[in-house]
């Protein structure tokens, strides 16, 4: 109860600080600057002469592209200029500091039928063009730019930057938004009316233009709806603060804060609805900002009105008929009618956007209930962007605008087939044909034959040559009822939704079609230049990565026909085990390739139905697989034989009868058994009991196995005696295995190595008596002893828990392997234990909020990098409760241990120990894996690398880099960040095939060079295969790694001289950083002959690694300290 109160108080304090950070200070200086800018705009507009004739020449490309006619008018001054938006209700949330200026268009500039055929949109744009021209002449205006209203190309707005800049208003600009109050008759813009005549009608079904009509209605009711919001927010500080919090929350979630979901204005409308009689007054003035925030999220997540529609006019006063409501629900996925009941404020919101919004709200409520400090970090500080949220991201980069438009707007190829079949190559009416094809939007799509496809390519290439300057091409091309980009989004979403089925929990297709820089003179040609982004959230491992999809039963002829038409050549008739004969699609692949299935399905569907080539569809699914493969195979595929070998060995151990005590259990400790080893060992031909054939292979990795013996009163009481008794048991176990099954065994005092079934197993003994003795001695705070039993016990606990976690989340293993590969490739192997990495990744699956647990390796890896870079390691412990075993008492103990470890922080930041506090049920003091490393400086370096890699990976997913070399850079470490670099002979590494990239140094001074040793080679040489099996087996070196041995030698021979950074997984470079600055006073006192110069030290390093070291470079001299 006490901790709950403390958490609530902490959350409220953080929210207050957040509001201070993001709220705009409406100071006199800021207010004056806004007023001055508005006045400058007003003055510039007043200078425009009345009666100025405006024609399409002001923006000919725009008028042409939207297909408008009869656009000439005589300029009249706007009826009013009125400040609206967030500034008017004092709810601007930084960093977006802008003021909306509503410019009411004069009725005299429009004819009564200008609502037809985009004439209104064309005149609206031309009106702004004239204003922009005169704004340029104002000395108080720095520049003006074009943008769009809610990403709608046919509704441009002007962005005006003042010449003056103010610290209180960073990046400030004014957005001029035209409004059209009472411009047209609302009845003429009824949902069922068709107001774009270039749309073709099929049969007798009336064809309306609800999106087009709503686009005009939006401008007509913009001022009225802004007034409704303004009146609700007037004098209600908490409501304004809640709006700011909701904006911060939504902006961190790119998938919902977009054109087809919510924006700041729509959020303010929802708040207004909940605060008035219309929404049942769910929000009242006694509530605090966070209470309003939560009530709003609860409404978004759980209200049934999303399916029924909700209306700003109170229930008894709403004059809409049931038929009208039905029309709204049929026309739009989400209905939020304004107070006039004539316009749907949510007409842009798609079904996928609505589902995403509600799901995000539900997840946020979970964060508030389950996360520390009311989920403040997860709700307001965590970036929930496409790369981190979705398991699979697809970029559709169709560089051919012509192909995009044809695929977007053409629902039927019938006319195309006819035209191409009867047209000559030099048809003079080629452009008219294309224009007509684009306009033909509502006919059913059929597939093309290869002959027609080839002709289509020629047609498109010739059309593309005529894209600029030919108005016939654009007749009703870009905008019909909806814009072509929005139509394309919906097509892609529908296609993938139908193809993936229950494999996907959510599919999100968004196209930020508005270019970052847009010149009106270019029309809409540059729109859609950014790639269309698709996010796919996998439903579960079992569903998402199944190999076979079962279709309709063979007897259902109609459904079979649809199925075959959709899947084409991938559809096949199969008989299943239960006797069912049904259509199906099969996505055959190896077990370790199943994460590629979703990518292959989407690639096939986009190619078949949208004619997109593989080059134009970029999936993020396999780009990082290269760092886990050996050749073209993932070594995880050998796990089956490894587990089989372990089963055989464990059975034989339990069957031993000629040892004093029976083996009670055998538990695997190595990470290969929990599927988190980057390179699980392969079967070695010399590690079998008999000769099974030989070929040149790498040496196997060691698989360590502890043995737990059954309890017995005959064990000695002294811990040293226990270890000696264990050694005797190990010798006897090795002898018994060799005599009974012919296994090759090598025993030492602490362990016995067994070669069987192609693997090397290292056996150790764990006994509870050693642990009890350890606990008695640990109570003495004056000394801390290490124990083999304690180490084995902790490792066994860790292994059991991680193994269970891997069973629950099959994606966990691949994510850990990527994380370990990244840590090693950036030379952090010495500073972060692999068990610590496993716990870091485990936290992403156990506490995924504000996300779902990752179902893809790249998404999980990105979240790992962000966790490493963003977590507050100094002031927060990371608690990993794998089996939900921790009680409140345990959590209190962990917090006390953590606070105790941070007592030294006030005196010295560098002395915080451990710098990374990882607590688990078996280790509440963070002693097991991070007690000594990483220290504060090492962790700081790791965090910097993680932040850089996370940003780089995010850009790779979102931007245009498709070159594999760019992805490789994630695992290339900059060697110039070290003071000295040692390069090794790559062919003398234990496993040369694991090396990702050969290292080279192009800076610094070359101080040593060496040749490769002839005494050691990691591979079985061809000449060795002529020797006997037993003689060759004796040459095997179990657990020998020259890199590890060399690093240990360096630490022993050069203590406190430098810090060693290396890659334990196969790197050929070692980085050195000088440990401490040399004092000038000490330098003078030391005799110059005794003092070791850095160059001499590095030459000695090269000598210590003779035969293994290729080159040594010095990049920076040690720093001198005053």
UniProtKB/TrEMBL annotation:
Cellular location(s): Nucleus, Nucleolus
A GO biological process held by the record: tRNA export from nucleus
Main location: nucleus
Residues in Nrap protein domain copies: 99-232, 240-383, 484-611, 640-806, 809-963, 975-1097
Organism in which the protein naturally occurs: Tetracentron sinense
Stored Gene3D superfamilies: 1.10.1410.10
Protein name as annotated: Nucleolar protein 6
Keywords: Nucleus, RNA-binding
InterPro entries per record: NOL6/Upt22 (IPR005554), Nrap_D1 (IPR035082), Nrap_D2 (IPR035367), Nrap_D3 (IPR035368), Nrap_D4 (IPR035369), Nrap_D5 (IPR035370), Nrap_D6 (IPR035371)
Entry GO CC: CURI complex; small-subunit processome; UTP-C complex
GO molecular function: RNA binding
Protein family according to the UniProt entry: Belongs to the NRAP family.
